[in-house]
Amino acid sequence: MIKLLLPFLIILVLALTVIDVAEAKRVVFQNGEDSLSGHYLVPTSGKPRAVILFVHGDGPLGYDAHGYYPLIWTRLLKQGFAIFSWDKPGVGKSTGNWLAQSMKGRQKEVQSAITFIRNSYGYSGDQVGLLGFSQAGWVVPAVANNNSDVGFVVGVGFALDWLQQSWYLTRVRMENQGVHPDVIDEAYASHVKDLKFLRQEHSYDDYRKRYAHTSELMSEARYQFILRNFRVNATSDYIGLTQPILLLLGDKDLNVDILNTKEVVEKLTEGQQNIQISIIKNATHGMLNAKHFNQQTPGLSFLLRLMWQGEKAVAPEFYMVLDEWLSHTADSAVSHPSANSKRVVINGDVQKISLTDCYTIDIP
User: How far apart are CA 329 and CA 267, in angstroms?
Assistant: First the structure.
């Protein structure tokens, strides 16, 4: 019983941190056949200067991402930003099934959220920001590209290529476990065979037969989710983006090759003044303090530490960089909208797509 109650207690404690600075309203919006339950938070200090939509990473995440988002909401609300976040399909009070989505489906969902928030509360496109995590890197840039409904973007822990990121995550995990390099080489050869199997789009029965010897088989829904998405690559989504963009990468990220992301995005946006790429010191994939929270597969003890440390759980430089960027760049985007309609985003998630991997709790 205690284990069942702990996640709810964690969420309650962290949610209480925003009560004094926000008025919260539960709303429902439609995306196709899905009715999605969202929470709209408005600063108590006055009319919002803009609204920031939170775009989830991987996994069955509710609107507050296991209590992680409120660590960021409080500061944004104090700066005058409204917040909009929602339960993924099939999570909380939302209908549907997040595992039935493709990345294009997720993009459509974000656009539905943007349309709802603009129509309901009167924001201009320049007053709409997207803040995405991990897997959202294959969602947000595509939504923002040539989209006058998006004014500015913040991305946390973005990868570019699903397959490249998958192997990076697996390799780093093995290295941290002290696995011999020869064994890692063998694992890579097996990984290449896994990719060939995926590209042939075998049935779930074929998958079960081939990997019957593994300790953790994916569910059929997870397997189909991977088949729909493993080919995604966000590289082309950055071409032509003109909105202000802040890309935040943790220097202790165990999930994403941040140097690859930085190098590729810098080349794609060479000569542009609208993008800032910041590598945050002592930060994890989700901008938490790497000294206490650097795990690829966080569990219950991770959430307990998150609850007790509160804002101290976050890498200090993350707050500093985000606060400064929003106070200058985002304000400029709202006050002086660009002459053209193009918009920019940065976002990225870390997806575990090795065929032998199964989903675990994901803190962005």
Answer: 21
Q: In which element (H, E) is residue 184 found?
A: helix 181-199
Specify whether 146 is located in the same domain as 173.
no
Please tell me the number of Cα atoms within 13 Å of 5 on its side-chain side. Answer: 2
Note whether residue 105 is domain-resident. Answer: yes
Give backbone dihedrals phi and psi of 165, rounded to 5 degrees, phi first. Answer: -65, -35
Report the CATH number at residue 89.
Answer: 3.40.50.1820
Blockwise average pLDDT, block size 10, the chain, 364 residues: 43 50 89 98 92 97 93 94 98 98 98 98 96 98 96 97 95 95 96 95 96 90 97 95 96 96 95 93 93 69 70 91 89 55 31 32 44
Question: What phi and psi, each to the nearest 5 degrees, are found at residue 67?
Answer: 90, 0
Residue 169 sits in the same domain as residue 204:
yes
8 Å CB contact between 280 and 323: no
For 355, what's the count of Cα atoms within 13 Å in the CB-facing half-sphere? 25
214-246 core/surface letters (b: 16 or more CB in 10 A; e: else) = eeebbeeebbbbbbbbbebebeebbeebbbbbb
Same domain? 179 vs 316 = no
Same domain, 321 and 207: no
Q: Tokens for 78?
A: 């104090």
Domain tally for the chain?
A: 2
Domain residues for the domain of 180 are 165-219
Entry pTM? 0.86
Distance CA 318, CA 334 (A): 22
Q: Are residues 304 and 278 in the same domain?
A: yes
